[in-house]
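Holo prediction — zinc ion.
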Amino acid sequence: MLLCYFEGSLFLMPELPEVETVARGLRRAILGRRILSVTLGKTDFIDDPAALEQHLPGRQIEAVERYGKFMLLRLSAVHGESRVASNGDAASASLLVHLGMTGQIAPSPAGQPLEKHTHVCLLLDDGRELRYTDARRFGRIAYLTKALLAEELTGFGADPLEVSKQEFAGRICGRRARIKALLLDQSVLRGVGNIYADESLWRARIHPARLGAKLSRKQAEILRRVLQDILRKAIVLRGSSISDFLDADGQPGEYQRHHRAYGREGKNCYRCKSLIRRAIVAGRSSYFCPRCQPSPRGFAALPLPGKSARKTKRRDAPPGSGQAPNAGKSLRRNGKSP
Ligand SMILES: [Zn+2]
């Protein structure tokens, strides 16, 4: 179930379909298991490591939910007088898991040797360990009480799979920001990143630099429908794996074969055969068809790179490189609309 997001030395941030794929895998594998103990390696990506060690043991994993681009493991209350007395917090709680760029989480038999970069091991009551590995440690793990969770979730936008026609139009039309920026803004919609933003804009024939305010209600509704369509299809295909690298236990996502715009600079548009172009919109590489997605007046694409120039360019400004490693993790730090 594990996915890796490599493109050469590049790592891409998992978006809604990839996180949903991992969450579904965990639901099948660890639901109902109780955590017996916690072992930590490097902890610089964990909000409060001591809280994990203190509060996780004894709790049952009651649900695995995806929220935007991260997961929430819902944990039961702790039973037993001694625990209540010792830490004073026995109420139900949550474990937030954000995979960052290279994070992977999966259960393994406890006796199995640790993979390199394993930083969290939760021993479960069936003899397995839930292990989190993360080579770059751009992920995030946090133990959240009910109050901390409420604070964490404040300010997130609608789930793109559930957002209604009216709500979507309300969040997009009338905004003076570019549509690409609005799609990426986690306070507008939670879970959409660079790949699925570009793919849905190509399908809806909307240029990424158009202003939300310039879209008609009809265009907004087309965009909502194709975005949902693309996300659902990508979930069925287990997300996008942009590489041939795979974890030993993993299976690749398949949706990258269906990309129509993302990463296709200089290749023919599947609809009109024009060359797909790239521009920087909202600080991100954005791929679009100049014919199917007419640009707003005065907005220019980047010149098509020559073959030798392209290599250099890719190294300097690879697809998806504009996003800070922690983008979208927490609205308190990120995700505000420009
Ligand atoms: Zn086209």
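READOUT: Confidence is low (pLDDT under 50) at residues 1-10, 243-249, 308-338.
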